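# step 3/5: fold
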Amino acid sequence: MEEALFRAVLFGTPILLASLGALLAERSGVVNLGVEGIMALAALVAFGVALGFTPLLGLLAGVGVGVLGGVILGVFTVTLRANQFVAGLAVAALGLGASGLLGKRYEGVPLGHPLPEGGLALLALFLAFSLHHFLYRTRFGLYLRSVGENPKAADLFGVSVDGVRYGALTLGGGLMGMAGAYLSLAYRPSWTDGMTGGLGWVAIALVILAAWEPLRAIFGAYLFGLLFFLQFRLQGSVPIPSEAFAAMPYLLVILVLALSGRTRAPKALGVPFERGR
């Protein structure tokens, strides 16, 4: 039992980090569907930098890739006011395609000195509590929540809606980049194409499951982590096809999306803001 919980925490850590990043963006009113692509590209860049320098620099590089992904998405959704869903899917496709193409040289190359999984898991937990404190105990957290609920009112009170959304996207992107770096530098210290395995989409669904609350995301991420652990642990020990275990986390995602109407999203989520309109 202890081993299952421990592995659930470790496998749930990248889901938690990515979901915190998506939650931060959505609280400001911007949907970020580029999570999977950002994670994949960050995992590749982090691994490449770690091989050439140190794993810590690799982690920072992965975070930097996430920040850049957030900025790019901000240009399209905040500045150009493009459709947030289309822009997010484009970022996801770009990240997945670029990582698959550029990562071929790293296939099968091991990382000699991986980062400690436990340390990054504790960091993710700390960041979840910090984000909760930021949202509900700080002035800037109030600004961010206001922009996500009523950007026109926030603008009237002198809050820069575009600035807040850019900030949320870049910080959230950094968390997604950290999630990708965790995969290639700690959890499975190597690079393989498709190593994110749909975790970015799981993270997006987790935001809904957690009702856009950071502390609820902790339990949701560890639940998904437990399901992923069980799919490997129970295969062959019970008379159930392995495909059924592999589908468990994604069936839960479908269930979450089906029940999403029961939760209240930020009112301005997905709605571009333009002053004077």
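# step 4/5: annotate
The chain has one domain: 2-262.
# step 5/5: archive (pending)
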